[in-house]
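The following record pairs a protein chain with its ligand, S-adenosylmethionine.
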Amino acid sequence: MSMNSNIVEIVKKAFVSQLRKNYEVRDDESKKIFLSKIVEKYPINGATMIEEINRLNPKLVVDLGCGLNQYKGLIKNLIGVDVVGCREDIVADITDLKEHFKDHTVDVVLALGSINFGEDDLIELQLKELKRLLKPGGVAYFRANQNDHDKDHKGDLRYYDWSKDLVEHWATRLGFEIIGEVILAQGSARIRDRMDSNFVGQRRSNIRLFWKWRAL
Ligand SMILES: C[S@@+](CC[C@H](N)C(=O)[O-])C[C@H]1O[C@@H](n2cnc3c(N)ncnc32)[C@H](O)[C@@H]1O
């Protein structure tokens, strides 16, 4: 097994217990509330982002590492991809989606907290795959942890050490234009408070980086 596939297994294990198990125990009403709270957790990724994407009238939006696929039904023509095996449309590793999507066929990609694990080599593979998916001029929305990875260990899970410099570095290297500002912001505490004590991010800072890239 390659080092990268090992990381994907570690990620899968962590998020099956964090997301899927936390969701599946709920009744239908509580599931709906839970999903809407995730949409509201980071206001930048809430109603404003949803409206902005829908205004583009996208033919295809792919949510990479969609978790519980909370944008399904809110964003037009969205397909969620993940390995947690709960609400995603496609169960697959986002590192290689050639079996599922042709080159340059996607209008908008979401990578919210998902291209955020392992080291440079895995991040590069995943960003190149995201670029392969996007049409020229297509837009990608990102959320990632910022520079707090000393605290980001739980078992073997390893967060990538994203920073504003790295957002610029990868954009230049892989052919993206940064749209607007790279933003630092804090999520609401609500979801964190509801997670059990094994929640993988329990001791992490709640500060996140948000940015948008346009594929050149
Ligand atoms: C922090 S959660 C974020 C979930 C969702 N995007 C959100 O914003 O609520 C990270 C998600 O990325 C998924 N993920 C990470 N690496 C992945 C990979 N290589 N292939 C598929 N999914 C992956 C995890 O399984 C997890 O569901």
